[in-house]
Amino acid sequence: MSVFKEKAGSVFRSLCVENWSPLMGGIVIAFFVILLEAWYRPWGIVGGLRNWGDWVFYLLGLYEDQPPHPLWFSSSVLNIGFLWGAFLSATLAREFSFRVPPGIEFVKAIVSGILMGIGSALAMGCNIGGMYMAINNLAANGLLMWIGLVIGVRFAVKYLYWEIEHLPAGGGFEINLSKINPLLALIAIVGLFLATRAYFGSEHDNGAILGGCLILTAGIGYAMHRSRLCIVNALREPFMSGEAAMARAVIVSLLLTTIGIAVLKAAGIRDEMAYVTPTFGLGALLGGIIFGFGMTVAGGCGSGSLWRVAEGQLKLWVVAIFFGLSNSLVRHLFSVYEIIYVNDEGELVSKWLGKSVFMPDYLGYAGTILLVAVFLLIWRILVDWNEETNRLVLEL
Amino acid sequence: MAVNLDEIKPDLTIDCKGLSCPMPLLKTKKAIQQLQSGQILEVLGTDPGSKNDIPGWCERAGHEFLGVKEDQGFMRFYVRKG
């Protein structure tokens, strides 16, 4: 074999087959997240799932107003792109197969999906829109949701320990599709190219914008699956094994995106109040606790559930469906009972969930970046210390 | 010393097929508690994440990861208790 062919093969393996390190994933994701926000809007997961849930309830006759079309609604397009990118990564590495878990896992999937829907309704975002993207959009509710998530995750680890003692389960299986994965990968690449071209070439006002959203979120999905970057893992492992590699990757990713998006907002490229939600209060804290518990039992957060959907984990299909449906219902009730409403000045407000706090209004941009950096530094020192001492690890 | 995975006789086998993160690793941690030092645990699994999780955990927890073998539609992971 020629050296060129050999090198081409090893480049393909390192980009498309072998796992990237979590740190590499965190950095590549940060790159695409900043580009997406510069291009059109902040990244998010639950808005798209809610749009799909809204359609289910609309078609069942429960909602009166027709929801926006999923192919022309940016939140939904973000998820389509994300799933597409993750599916491409899974099929290129021959990792796409249907994994059918034992029955109890389906019960856990339904319950945890519902909890994730409720938590993300209270926090007005999942761990992505409500925490990762809220912190890097300089919204105080993001930091509060982080605290809630950590509390919820810790309770959930206790539950999982209990379950493993009391509810032994086996009998899951896999429907192996690795043989047809290269064909699926080819279809995914060609399809992604054609879909992006169709958006850019369309007459629709938002065509080019949505085409950019599709291809950029495909980049996020690809990097996230290839590195198996998982925010549940980042928050859970310090309590379960002490392992902190994933937490370190998320911390770096948060630091990079915070600086990048602060530049976009300070330069006036993106509205300062983008992703600053009226949840700095009960909403982010309680929502974080409920979501954190749910995502740990589910085995995937907002984004982590979706990339596992794209590699064929049927448990996470059930999680994503119930997550979207319950979020849709709770947010519908919130608007019916005016828990969240638009005031006379056109701002989104809530009496119960909390205030909208854009941190630079209080601390300035430099002060806010410094605050986030100090928070990340403390988080980093804590997980490193715990990795060495196992002081936070709960014994099985 | 390289171990021939085809000749391993596990002392305990657990079935994690179809399960997703973190259940395969949790069940592995639970099962290894039942073994004596030097005994071998076999884990049957289908989650691609286990290819990172199980060797990584072995290193941290002081067990020896002997390797992984592809079977029909699942993987067999071998761990020697440290």
Automatic annotation (TrEMBL), chain A:
Topology relative to the membrane: Multi-pass membrane protein
Q: Which residues cross the membrane?
A: 20-40, 71-93, 114-135, 141-162, 183-200, 206-224, 245-268, 280-304, 316-342, 362-382
Q: Which GO terms describe its cellular component?
A: plasma membrane
Q: Where in the cell is it found?
A: Cell inner membrane
Q: Where this protein primarily resides, as one coarse class?
A: membrane
InterPro entries to which the protein is assigned, alphabetical:
Sulf_transp_TsuA/YedE (IPR007272)
- Keyword terms: Cell inner membrane, Cell membrane, Membrane, Transmembrane, Transmembrane helix, Transport
Signal peptide range equals none
Annotated family: Belongs to the TsuA/YedE (TC 9.B.102) family.
Q: PANTHER family from the entry?
A: INNER MEMBRANE PROTEIN YEDE, SULPHUR TRANSPORT DOMAIN-CONTAINING PROTEIN
Per its record, how is this protein called by name? YeeE/YedE family protein
Automatic annotation (TrEMBL), chain B:
Per UniProt, the keywords (alphabetical) are: Transferase
Q: Which domain of life is it from?
A: Bacteria
Which GO MF term does the entry hold, naming one?
A: transferase activity
Output the InterPro entries linked to this UniProt entry: TusA-like, TusA-like_sf
User: Any stretches that span the bilayer, and where are they?
Assistant: none
The reply to whether Transferase figures as a keyword in the UniProt entry is yes
Q: Where is the UPF0033 domain?
A: 14-38
Family of this protein: Belongs to the sulfur carrier protein TusA family.
The name this protein carries in UniProt is: Sulfurtransferase TusA family protein
Which organism's genome codes for this protein?
A: Thermosulfurimonas marina
